[in-house]
Write a structure and sequence with these properties.
Length: 304
């Protein structure tokens, strides 16, 4: 680590784990050192002016002002350095991030969906094709609303909270949200982008260090915002394949629940309409049948 990086460490920047991250770190480092130099320079100048133009030395104000051109040169230099930073470094780096996506055949493509207050990851499965998603099909067991009639969606992998990616391969993320605006922020990978309902926002990074990296939500998205965390695990290729195989095996049961399985929220206990065997424990709060009419109050037999 160079001495330039000291300021990033001081500001709490976590270690970089992505291929492009060092470029962002350089700009951050340079900008902070430059701001520090400006602060020091202008503060010194301010103190100098206070002393140099004190009333005791200049009892009468001079309307001609300072005649040397040094302040003009200084200000011009500051503008020049800032223009070089913006036009020479920041804009090209940004343009590279948004225009130069890696070829999709080498990349891992993941749909990331934010919702209050977690992240869901959607991967295409062995066929390499994402199933159709439809917001009307969202249920507890189908959090992304994958169309069960779409053959491309049969092998899709849906994981909540933790995504695995292989090291040294570009990861392309398509970001969206189910409710409010979130922000998918991976501080170690030096990327962040807003997840906006109704939009698919692409972003990409290439992890170069294996390990577990926290995902945070970078937009104040509600009361549970503080807990909206996830994990990106960068694996060695063999570990990644093992994880993928495990998830793919699970995907069959995830996406196609057996026909006999009760839907979520179904009443627990004997099926409504069956007579419990004698001696069976009584079912408290029997589920009401929707077609049942509310019971009429029995007429009181007494003649009061
Ligand atoms: Cu959020």
């Amino acid at each position: 680590m160079t001495s330039l990086a000291l300021i990033n460490e001081f500001l709490g920047q976590p270690p970089n784990a992505s291929e492009h991250g060092y470029q962002i770190d350089h700009i951050l480092e340079f900008s902070h050192w430059f701001m520090g130099a400006l602060f020091f320079g202008w503060s010194t100048f301010f103190v100098f002016v206070l002393i140099r133009f004190h009333k005791s030395r200049h009892p009468k104000a001079d309307h001609a002002g300072v005649r040397s051109g040094i302040s003009t040169h200084l200000e011009f230099s500051v503008v020049l350095i800032e223009a070089v930073l913006l036009i020479g470094f920041a804009i090209p780096l940004w343009a590279k991030r948004v225009n130069e996506f890696p070829p999709t055949q080498d990349a891992i493509i993941v749909h990331v969906v934010g919702q209050q207050f977690n992240w869901t990851f959607h991967m295409p499965g062995p066929d390499g094709q994402f199933g159709r998603r439809e917001i009307g099909l969202v249920t507890n067991s189908n959090p992304l609303g994958i169309d069960p009639n779409d053959p491309a969606g049969k092998d899709d992998i849906v994981v909540l909270g933790e995504l695995h990616v292989p090291i040294n391969r570009p990861v392309i993320i398509e970001l969206s949200s189910k409710d409010v605006i979130h922000n998918f922020c991976l501080p170690h990978m030096r990327i962040a982008a807003d997840a906006i309902p109704g939009s698919l926002i692409p972003m990409w990074f290439k992890p170069i260090k294996s390990g577990n990296y926290e995902v945070v939500c970078g937009q104040l998205c509600g009361l549970g915002h503080y807990g909206m965390k996830g994990m990106v695990v960068v694996d060695e290729p063999a570990e990644y394949q093992a994880w993928l195989k495990e998830r793919a095996e699970l995907a069959g049961t995830q996406n196609a629940p057996p026909a006999t399985q009760q839907p979520p929220g179904a009443p627990v206990g004997p099926t409504p309409g069956t007579v419990p065997p004698p001696g069976a424990p009584k079912n408290e709060n029997p589920p009401a049948k929707p077609e049942q009419k509310p019971a009429q109050p029995a007429p009181t037999p007494s003649g009061e």
